[in-house]
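We emphasize that the prediction below concerns an isolated chain of 238 residues; any contacts that depend on oligomerization or on bound cofactors are therefore not represented. The input was used exactly as deposited, without trimming of termini.
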Amino acid sequence: MSKPLANKTALITGATRGLGYALSLELSKNGAHIIATGRTVGALEELDDEIKNVGGTATLVPLDLLEEETLDGLGPSLFSKFEKLDILIGNAAYLGALSPTSHFKNTEWNKVLGTNLSANWQLIRSLDPLLKQATSSTALFITDEEITENSPAYWGPYAASKAGLEALVKAYANECNETITKVQLYSPCPMATNLRRKAFPGEDQSNLTQPEEVAKAITNHIINNEAANGAHIKFQSE
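Result of the prediction step, given as a token string:
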């Protein structure tokens, strides 16, 4: 079986569930060594077992994205082991409560913005030198086009965090125009995930697209990556 991502390293945030979990397995099947981040050691170990079952390898990184010093140390730590990073996927997201904007507490606002926006900025700051050490590299950040375009009522902090992420990634992409790194945004379709279940608790998820299908589309995109630096790619069912 052809493994087009052999000898590639891929770091995925939020790797222990939902789309991150599916991406870890799909990229691994295609030969990438997975650097999996997540807050729970047990969940990371379960993911590691599944990666081994598909013939892959992984490095487990227990990581809370709100711990600034840990994120700052991530780049140097990975450089000492791998010297480069071929793929970065900023996937982790925190929904927070759906509530009137005026009712949000500081702690909740800070957690939503910290996870969805600030952590991705710190990942860029920490990992950009490793991305530049690869022959070619991709930095892909998961956004939510429906939310950023419509800013629905009660989604204030989440919408703000994703809109901010899109602006940040576009700026970073412009800075990478003359480099070997392609920086892109990716909007999945509605998926059967825990995050969506929290947002729409009464929804029948049996009719939604599974994360595995989106993971295959993202993996194919990364393998071929014909889109331009700075592109915003939208999921299309095959």
